[in-house]
Amino acid sequence: MTSSPEAAPTGSAGAFDDVVFDVFARRCASRSALENITGRWGVLVLAALHDGTYRFNALRRRVDGVSEKMLAQTLHTLERDGLVVRTVLGQIPPRVEYSLTPLGRDTSAKLLELIGFLEDRMGEVVAARDGYDSARG
Fold first, then answer.
1. Is there a contact between 124 and 56 (Cβ–Cβ < 8 Å)?
2. 23, 45: one domain
3. Is residue 127 part of a domain?
4. Cis preceding linkage at 93, omega within 30
5. Whole-model pTM?
6. Could you state, in chain order, the average pLDDT of each consecutive group of 10 residues for the chain (137 residues)?
7. Domain range for residue 118?
8. Separation in Å, CA 32 to CA 17, 131, 134
């Protein structure tokens, strides 16, 4: 069975084995998942959590510049997409930790490859920016 990328069936992951997802299709679920992962904060949160489990404030310090509101929204979205797990520990006061699911770990590994590649090539990026700005300035 091949389904339109606009409307995928609901159910377990195995229910999607024969579904064709197409990130270029406007209403395909894969597009919103890609946006959630590759958004400004999604990439950084997933990369940070690749190092291990974090409490909210520690993660906020690790992802420098993210507001409390944006971090909470990002974590909620990534949890909904099955990439992050939120664990409430039965302590007083309650302690909440965030970690990656197996899907989140695989995803963050790919993102870390991209981050490493980009950081290794930043000399070229800076030179290109300088050349662009000089030609237009």
1. no
2. no
3. yes
4. yes
5. 0.84
6. 43 68 92 95 98 97 97 98 95 92 98 98 98 94
7. 39-136
8. 19, 35, 37
